[in-house]
Amino acid sequence: MTTLGSEFAMLLLVSGNWHLRSRLDQELEKLRGSGDLQISIKETDAKPVAADRMPYLVDVLALDQQGIVFNLADFFASRDIEIADVATHSYAAAHTGAPMFSVQMSVNVPSSIQVAQLRDEFHELCENLNLDAVFDAAKP
Fold it and tell me: Dihedral of CA 74/119/109/43: which sign?
């Protein structure tokens, strides 16, 4: 948030399905109608995957512990694998109430990397960190 004289400017980045964006647009329109707020909306497209990269989806589930996202990001970054999107969620396990943590990632793997070896290394990392994980090619 920046101050412009007695006014404030704020940038809000939002992502979601069409229904969520539609509801947000309706609520922002109500605020705009009050005359107290100027709103500019710009829809963007997903960054296209480079021709020499293959999109993959990563799903991780574990008991909540420090360093899960850091370790995953470090694993991919050290192999020049682009992390295109990350979403996390914390919740209590249904029957036990144990603190759980899930991570969903979209990554773009260079075509020069052997996917079978990458998958083995990824599953070894997850085994060492006690993470339940899936690493699959993204469906078009």
Answer: negative
Residue appearing with tokens 């470090």: 74
Q: Which domain holds residue 86?
A: 53-137
The model's pLDDT over 82-133, given as tens digits with 9 standing for 90+, comes to 999 999 999 999 999 999 999 999 999 999 999 999 999 999 999 999 999 9
Q: Is residue 109 assigned to a domain?
A: yes
In this structure, the answer to whether residues 64 and 29 fall within a common structural domain is: no
